[in-house]
From TrEMBL:
<keyword id="KW-0472">Membrane</keyword>
<comment type="similarity">
    <text>Belongs to the sulfotransferase 3 family.</text>
</comment>
<dbReference type="GO" id="GO:0000139">
    <property type="term" value="C:Golgi membrane"/>
</dbReference>
<keyword id="KW-0325">Glycoprotein</keyword>
<keyword id="KW-0735">Signal-anchor</keyword>
<protein>
    <submittedName>
        <fullName>Uronyl 2-sulfotransferase</fullName>
    </submittedName>
</protein>
<keyword id="KW-1133">Transmembrane helix</keyword>
<dbReference type="GO" id="GO:0004394">
    <property type="term" value="F:heparan sulfate 2-sulfotransferase activity"/>
</dbReference>
<dbReference type="InterPro" id="IPR005331">
    <property type="entry name" value="Sulfotransferase"/>
</dbReference>
<keyword id="KW-0808">Transferase</keyword>
<dbReference type="InterPro" id="IPR027417">
    <property type="entry name" value="P-loop_NTPase"/>
</dbReference>
<keyword id="KW-0812">Transmembrane</keyword>
<dbReference type="GO" id="GO:0009101">
    <property type="term" value="P:glycoprotein biosynthetic process"/>
</dbReference>
<dbReference type="InterPro" id="IPR007734">
    <property type="entry name" value="Heparan_SO4_2-O-STrfase"/>
</dbReference>
<keyword id="KW-1015">Disulfide bond</keyword>
<dbReference type="Pfam" id="PF03567">
    <property type="entry name" value="Sulfotransfer_2"/>
</dbReference>
<keyword id="KW-0333">Golgi apparatus</keyword>
Length: 332
């Protein structure tokens, strides 16, 4: 009888433990000093750092008029082929130095999410202990729509034609970090050049996905955001005002300087670190350089710019806004 009673107690304890374990997003922590420690979760990878004291009342106001809480959640909804892997390499180093977490999902697609998936991510943001930086290839959405927390959005974009060309060859050949041979074999006309793709009016280069790629990341998740129309552009511009900063890859150094000034508890020392060579690794720009990329002809560049009028209007809008922010921060 006693044995059966003990067995029942043990089973109830185990069931309770499993329920609690599955109901929470758990993170393994240690008080030891360590560099980057990884834990594989269903959500993806968490780059952990030791605990530190956080002053939740410590706030400042950015020149964009946004309140920055130093324990705030940072969301980087990165646009493909806009320098994000170089940025993330730096962020992961700073996470160790400044003691925050970089959280990445198991998957970076789809870019457009249904409401249920948006709600899931919003709940995920609420459950995580701050401070952290979450990144993913996904379109913008407001977490407060789903009862989620306040977050500070950041992003980085680049010249639209330059991005499109890089993406075109990356899908075929990868870069010095990722060899895309498996993907290459599935791509139609995989040996085609970007020039040929544009001249033959292939959907990959002149369809909506080819000429209207950056704007949707800021427009949102409605179907209309994927269509190269004035409405989508205006909605993207409206949403950008909710970002702490959107930089341009062509001024990468200044983007890092802006982050360092606006979010010092995350990025203090980031610019100096970005200029510090790693003796054990080639420069990040070499590692993430797209392989076999061919520069398009001037004719094709002109044709593509004409096709991407809305993308360039958005790019110029971001550039002007970024320059205004730099001036307000006295970044020359």
């Amino acid at each position: 009888m006693r044995l059966r009673f003990r067995f029942i107690v043990v089973m109830l304890f185990m069931i309770g433990f499993i329920i609690i374990f599955n109901g929470l997003y758990t993170v393994i922590e240690t008080t030891e000093d360590y560099s980057v420690h990884k834990q594989r979760e269903q959500q993806g990878t968490i780059y952990l750092t030791p605990n530190r004291a956080i002053n939740d009342a410590g706030t400042t106001t950015s020149p964009a008029g946004l309140a920055v809480n130093y324990s705030q959640r940072i969301v980087y909804n990165r646009v493909p082929k806009c320098g994000s892997r170089s940025v993330l390499t730096l962020f992961k180093i700073m996470a160790v130095t400044n003691k925050f977490r970089v959280i990445e999902p198991a998957m970076n697609y789809p870019y457009q999410l249904g409401r249920n998936e948006q709600k899931r991510i919003s709940d995920f943001m609420s459950a995580l202990r701050t401070p952290f930086l979450y990144h993913r290839h996904m379109h913008y959405f407001d977490f407060k729509t789903f009862g989620g927390p306040s977050v500070a959005y950041i992003n980085l974009i680049r010249d639209p034609v330059s991005r499109s060309v890089s993406h075109f060859y990356f899908r075929r050949y990868g870069d010095n970090l990722l060899n895309k041979t498996r993907v290459k074999n599935k791509i139609k006309n995989r040996d085609m050049t970007y020039d040929e793709c544009v001249l033959k009016k292939e959907t990959e280069c002149v369809g909506n996905w080819g000429i209207f790629f950056i704007v949707p990341f800021f427009c949102g998740h409605l179907k209309e955001c994927r269509s190269p129309k004035r409405w989508a552009l205006n909605q993207a511009k409206k949403n950008v005002e909710k970002y702490l900063v959107v930089g341009i890859l062509e001024e990468y150094d200044d983007f890092i300087k802006v982050l360092e000034k606006l979010l010092p508890n995350f990025f203090q020392g980031a610019y100096k670190q970005s200029k510090t060579p790693d003796p054990y690794m080639p420069p990040k720009s070499v590692l993430s350089l797209t392989r076999k990329k061919q520069k398009p002809s001037e004719k094709i560049i002109a044709m593509s710019k004409e096709n991407m009028k809305l993308e360039y209007e958005f790019y110029d809008f971001i550039k002007e806004r970024f320059h205004k922010l730099k001036r307000s921060l006295d970044i020359q």
